[in-house]
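Study this:
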Amino acid sequence: MRIVVVGAGAMGSLVAARLAQAGELVTLFGRPSPHLEAIQRDGLTLVEMDGARQSVPLNATSDADAAGGAELVIVLVKAWATAEAIAPLREAIPREARVLTLQNGLGNAAALRATLRRPDGARPAVLLGVTTQAANRGTPGEVIHTGAGITAIGRRRAGPDSHLTAIARTLSAAGVPTVAVDDIHRWVWRKLAVNAAINPLTALAGVPNRDISSDRDLRAAAAALAREVTAVALANGINLDAQDIVAAVNDVARATGTNRSSMLHDLEAGSRTEIDAINGAVVTEGARVHVPVPLNHAVTALIRARERLSDTYQEEMASRTDD
C-alpha cells in the first residue's frame, strides 16, 4: 500500500517509521524543519519504550507531489493546522484514495472534507480514527515511543468496508494495533473526554500525567471535566458511561505516568495548543445541545490566556495574519 503520513511531529514520525519498518511504501510529508532535514540526511532515529535505538530509513519531504498515487493518507498534524497542512496536497491526492485522521479533538474530519473538495465537488473519502499510542520528539531526526495503545478507525455513517479492514490490517502488521469499528464516534468522544480531563490540567499545573491520578485535587478536577464531556456526548446520542470514562482517565494517567502531555509541551514551547479542538469543542457542542460545561469553559479560557502571554505564539499568529 502506498501511504503518505502528513505531519512530521512525534506521532506522524512514529507511525511513518513503523510503516517503513514493515516494508510499506511510506512517505513522511511535513513543513521544512531541522527534524525533516535530519531524517532526509540520516534517516529517523526511533527510540523504543525499552530504550533501544535504531535508525529507520524513511522517505521524508515537503514536496506536495509526494501524495501523487497515494492509496492512503494519514493525517497527524495539530488540529488547528489541519486545513493548512492538507491544502497543498489537494490536487495530488487521488480521488480514490482514503484520507484517515488520527488527530486529537473534534472537527478534523470536517476540515479535511472541506479542504479536499475540488471545484467539481469531488474529494477522497475521509475516515475517522483515534489512537492511544504516544510519542515525543527528541533531538532533530529522533522520535521516542512513550506509550503503546490501540488505534480504532471507522466511517462517518456506516460500518467497516473492505478498504477500512485492509487499512486496519496494514497498520496492525506494522506494529500499530488497529481495529476497524462501526461505532467510531463513540471512540472519538471517549478519547476526547480523556484528553479534555488530562491535557489542560497537566498543562496548567505543569505536571506529568501520573499526577492526574495521584493528586487528590487534580483527580477530582479531571473527573468533573470528564463528566461534563460525557453529558455532552449523551446529548449528542453517543453512549458513554460517566463512571467508565472517569476510570479510563485514571487508567490512562497511570499508564502514561511520566509522559508530559502535548498541551504541556506546547505551552512550555510557547506554541499554540489544541485547546480549541478539545475543551473548546466541548464548550461549543455543549452550547449547541444546551448542556452546561462550566469547568471546560474555565480551562479553555485559562489555556487561551496562557497562549496569549507567549511571544512565540504572538509572532506565529501575526505571521498568519500577514499571509
